[in-house]
Amino acid sequence: MGVEGCTKCIKYVLFVFNFIFWLAGGIILGVALWLRHDSQTTNILYLQLGDKQAPNTFYVGIYILIAVGAVMMFVGFLGCYGAIQESQCLLGTFFTCLVILFACEVAAGIWGFVNKDQIAKDVKQFYDQAFQQALLAESEANNGRAVVKTFHETLDCCGPDNVGATFTPLWTNDLCPKKENAWKTFLEVSNCHKKIDELFSGKLYLIGIAAIVVAVIMIFEMILSMVLCCGIRNSSVY
């Protein structure tokens, strides 16, 4: 005997929420894959300075997002099927998966909040090392010049967050995006520390919005799944 009345309404509301949850998982998976292959981040984070690789902290977060998106799609499908079939077993499994996923999301959010400044800081330190090697003409052995040029061309920036370095002839004439003259370059092109901060803060802001939306949907789904599960149990008594 199927559920009736308000419980039946909850059944279809839960189905709709799970369908939205499934779509959200697909969107997060797509956004994560886009961030993973975005030209700005890949150009910078695949760089190598001598035997030192660019920091990969950002990619750790992206791989977590890819896994979360895939799991969300699976859990969303499980919830949709469990709601339509009115299966207490599937709904209980769905609720357990949601709790685990919610806990993982909270843990990932805390990790991201703690490391949000460290990501940009590590990349800026990597850039500064390459910039110093380029200025000291060590680029033949350590490819510092090529690394610096990649930063400058990808982010349309010029030089570190250091006013004294901006007057170095090598900085204005050889390593930076070409403008009509060096003075125009100094006025129009931002320093690379600022651009690195903007690059990662913008992407983390996008990830944060998606995480908040998903967390709200999860809370509603946990409540609805338990209410529906109780309704199914009560209806089976009669």
TrEMBL record:
- Which cystines does this chain contain? 157-192, 158-176
Location relative to the cell: Basolateral cell membrane; Membrane
GO molecular function per UniProt: lipid binding
Cellular component terms (Gene Ontology): basolateral plasma membrane
Transmembrane stretches in the record are 12-35, 56-84, 90-114, 204-228
Keyword Transmembrane helix tagged: yes
Q: How does it sit in the membrane?
A: Multi-pass membrane protein
Q: What is this protein called?
A: Tetraspanin
Protein's gene: Cd81
